[in-house]
Every structure is written in structure tokens, then in C-alpha cells.
Design goal:
about 40% strand, 1 helix
Amino acid sequence: MIVGIGVSAVIVIGTLVSCMPRHKEIALVGAPAPHLFVFAGDADKAESDFLAVFDVAPNSPSRGEPLYSVSTGMKGSMPHHAEYVAPPAGEPLFMNAHHHEKSLIVDISDVSALTVNKVLSPPPSFRFPHDYARTESGTRLVGFLRSDGASPNAEEDLTPGNHGGIAEYAQSGELLRTASAAVDGLGKPVRPYAFAVLPDKDRFVVTSAPMIEQSWAEVLQIYRYSDFELLHTLNMPAGGDVVSRGNWSARATGFGAQVLDDGSVFLSTYECSLYHLTQIETDRPALEVVHTIDADRSGNASHACGIPVRMGNFWIQPLAKNRMVVVLDITDPKSPREVFRLETPDDFMPHWLSRDPRSNRLILGSEMGSEQGFYVLRIDESTGELAFDGDFNGLKPGMFFKSRTRGYISLYRQDWPHGSTGDAWGHAALFLNSPDGN
């Protein structure tokens, strides 16, 4: 019986509601994409991982709910990164199943009939595909974190653990060419992570960062696209405080990289420092630290900066360990200026970010085991302010019961369109249009 606590509970609940901060409202701008694509992992690994499409049309009565899903036939594959934006209409989407070391090429032309066109194994002797970038011609660059053999770092007991590499694939999955990221004399392995492609300069830039590895070179590489030749391996200068964080003690772990309108490249590191790369097509490219985010929310140094998005002059940066998203004005990329920060709940660690190319919405994913749902955000493109999108109120489990959470799209559910496979989790998500482009 709960009669004895009923009155006090009502008083407490009433107090909590009255003390809750008012949510900021940001108007929805544009013609939002109606669908959200998620590569989902089965939570208990008893059933297959799957592809899912959610309804995210703002006025739909079923918004926030899954419309379609299809099994991949892989259990415990660890769905991980996909391309950071959906490809143009008619092109497939590349993504990876990390534990299985596979790349999946998915036909997304009809969201009601998602199809895995091909499953690719790494080209010998590369291992563990991670990131994907589309080139101007529609091919895909793929980064591989490792290759067969021991790590060049004698202190890293990991096999395979050698330098990673890159490959280029046709949309069909045909392997076109490869290049090793290995550098003679480098004491740590280069682990190709994120790309920035500059077709006008015949260059592409690749950062180096680990996934589950213990050692990685703190460098950035520049390749010539036309012949896949590695031109430069630049040491990443240290930025901000260096704090021991177990395996994550590197001073400069290159993560997200974006090409700016002037042809330079702006990038972040896992340690939350921001870098500017210029003179990329010359014999002496210049890389400098321009800012370090100060995000000491809970007594921790800024840490675990994930996948950023650039919208105009705003750089939007998730910080997992600090449970926030920070927005910086990079009108002057050599002098970024913080303009806003959005705090997320303590049980959510912001990592993945992708924008709706048709509106001012973004989708925010998590890492480190808190990937049971996503937040839809809106940005004020004139000020850089962020807010949780009130069109979505997914169920989120708490200590005692589930509650509706503003902006949340939940993967906590027993039933999916493809079957009753139970709760799921998702690391990456992308906005998709309808098959007719509307």
C-alpha cells in the first residue's frame, strides 16, 4: 500500500515541477526531413542487430516512433559509424559493424524497404573499418584503424595492432585503391579516423584516433587524392591541459575535421582542443591550436569531445564526459568564441552529431553505454543557441519508472516493425528524406 506516502509524494512532485527550469523555445525553420535512420544494436545480443527508420515529421501523430526496421543478420556486431550526412538521392549509405570488421552498403532509396546491398570485408591486410567520406565523384573513402602485425609501439600488446590505412570504393563496393598510413620511424601506429576532402586542392586530410586500441600517433596526415600519395604527416601540437585518463592520455587525439569556406580545415580533438590547418596544398602546411574548450561542469577537465557539426560560422561540439554540447563562433577560425552551451542529463554522454540538411534540427547521439536513445535539438542559426525539440517526448527509464523526456527518441521498446526483439541501442543516426525527395 502507498496510502501513507501519497500526500507527501504529491507535495514533493509538485515542488519538483514548480522548480523545473522553463525550456527555451526555438522556432523550427525550413522543411524538416521526415525520417531518421538508425543502425541499431540489439541490447541483449540475443537477436540480430537491425536497421530502423523513425518518423520525425514534426506534425505526424506517430513522430518519434519506428516506422520500418529490418534485420542485418548479424548479432553483437557493434553498430558504429556511418557517413556523417545522408548521401544524395540514388546513392547507398556506407556504415560499419565494428566487432565484425564489416562495412555495410545500404540502399536507402526506399525507407520502407531498406536493403543491405553488400557486406565488405577489409582489403588485406587492413583491419577494422571506421569512418567514411564521400568524394566529389561519389566514391567513398574508408579509414581502417589497424592492419595485420604487431603495433610499432612495443608497449602496446595488441594483435593485429599495426598502422591502419585508407581505401577508396565505388558505390557498388568495388575496391578501387588503397594506401597505408604507415610512416617509417614513427613509434606509434597511425589510426586513420576522420576525413576532410578538398577536391579543389587535390587533397584530403585524415586524423588519427583509436577506437578500442591503446596506442595511436598524435598526428594529422595530408594525401594527394589523384594518386593516393601520402604527402605530409604533421605532429599535432599539444592543446590545453594534459590530464591522465588511463588509455585516453594522448595530448592530441584528432577527431572531427571540416572544410571551411576558405578551403582551410578546422578540427577538434578528443581532449577538446580546436585546430586550424592552412596552406594545405603547399609544401609547408600549417597546423595550429586556436582554442581549448573550458567545460569544467563536474570537476573534470574537458574531455571526450566527439563528432562536431558546422553550420555556417557555428561549430557545434558534443562533450561526452562533461554532458554538454558547446557552440562556438568560428567566423575567425584563428580566434573561436564560445556563444552557448547546452547541458544534457547526467545519464547521457553526447558524442554523435548530425544535422538535418533541410531544417535547423540536429540529432544528438551518445557513447560509453548511454546509447539507448537520441535527442533532437534545434539551433537558432542567428545566435547559435540550442534547445531540445519539444516535438519529441520519448520514454526514458529512470530509477523507478519511465518518464517522458523532452526532445528524446527512445530505443527502449519491446516491439519493432521487424519483430519483438526488445530494447536496442544506437550510436549513429541520420536524417533522411522520403523516396520522392519530399
